[in-house]
TrEMBL record, chains A, B:
Domain HTH tetR-type residues, every copy: 11-71
GO molecular function terms listed in the Swiss-Prot or TrEMBL record: DNA-binding transcription factor activity; transcription cis-regulatory region binding
The organism's place on the tree of life at top rank: Bacteria
Presence of keyword Nucleus: no
Gene3D superfamilies: Homeodomain-like (1.10.10.60), Tetracycline Repressor, domain 2 (1.10.357.10)
Positions of the DNA-binding region: 34-53
Name assigned to this protein: TetR family transcriptional regulator
Transmembrane segments: none
DNA-binding is among the record's keywords: yes
Keywords: DNA-binding, Transcription, Transcription regulation
Length: 198, 198
């Protein structure tokens, strides 16, 4: 990708801007979100931001896409493998500042121009990808055909969210270390729920 | 209960103030929360509010306690009965303005004096009550002794949250009508997950 002026863009700067934008929104919400504050936090000039994102609405929408886009887009060949990966991605998102940003989005996105619709379509594509994982599992005979895809995914995604919220500050570091075993435990619990008749 | 002046308090006014305070906080967050705005929304004089709540921090903390206090404090005699009731209470809270208030609390409570600590202890007592339900179920032999109480409750509470969030505006009314059957379906799904070895 290149700028209008033809210079190649620095992906490291893209990433710093996106991270700073998501973190700032998580801390202050839309009320405290400005190009100035993002530029300061990212350690770049305001011109670098305007070059990439013509408005602060677009900046936040682009940053969210950048930070959340890889969720659920995986196919490991087994339902268990796919869901463990999904769980790890969700843990990554919900922990820390990006988790606060997601909470704020649920509350504030409908009233922020541009951001609401982008957030909706991002969420929708993630839900579709996650549903595809479960349907592939049904297709391979790993779980029964009558499995409630929605129930399985709601309890998985919601379970991750509760796990993160209920961890006190001083346990967050330990939680980070236990991501792998937690993901396996959660997936086994829920897949066990649907496959017990097989 | 009576006021300092000795007049009995009107519980209907208490309730209107609590509802207005929770709804306003859900819509605007702490930034837009004021005694004036709550008085207007509740249709009462500001003096009526100050008589009950000496500060806006106390007002919000009291309102939350008023609105959320009955969650999980039930004992129907069976695990399934208890969890279905818990699910219905959670659905009631997460839907509509009080759900937005809960989301905002998770993000904002740590930085609002008084409210953060009250919210923490309210949440804690609800978690303890919910854990007691599951332990009673284990005690009665309804589910295995090695059941992960945390995993069962995280997936139940989180599942309800996701169910509410993912419903588009125009389906909220239908969701209200289906509360009973949804609660039964969710509880059967999760209790099935833990009792499959019995």
């Amino acid at each position: 990708m290149s700028t209008a002026a033809g210079r190649p863009r620095d992906p490291e700067v893209d990433r710093r801007i996106a991270d700073a934008a998501v973190d700032l929104f998580g801390r202050t919400g839309w009320a405290g979100f400005s190009m100035d504050a993002v530029a300061r936090a990212a350690g770049v000039g305001k011109a670098s931001i305007y070059l990439r994102h013509p408005s602060k609405e677009r900046l936040l929408a682009d940053a969210l896409t950048h930070r959340l886009a890889d969720v659920a887009d995986v196919d490991t060949g087994t339902l268990r493998g796919d869901l463990v990966l999904l769980t790890r991605q969700l843990l990554d998102i919900y922990r820390g500042e990006s988790g606060r940003a997601v909470l704020r989005l649920i509350v504030e996105a409908p009233s922020i121009p541009d951001v609401g619709s982008r957030w909706e379509s991002l969420r929708e594509s993630q839900v579709l990808a996650a549903r595809a994982m479960v349907r592939r599992g049904i297709g391979r005979g790993e779980i029964p055909a009558e499995t409630s895809v929605t129930m399985l995914l709601d309890t998985l995604c919601g379970g991750v969210l509760m796990h993160v919220w209920s961890a006190p500050e001083h346990l967050q570091a330990r939680m980070a270390a236990d991501v792998e075993s937690y993901a396996a435990e959660l997936v086994d619990f829920l897949v066990g729920a649907v496959r017990r008749d097989i």
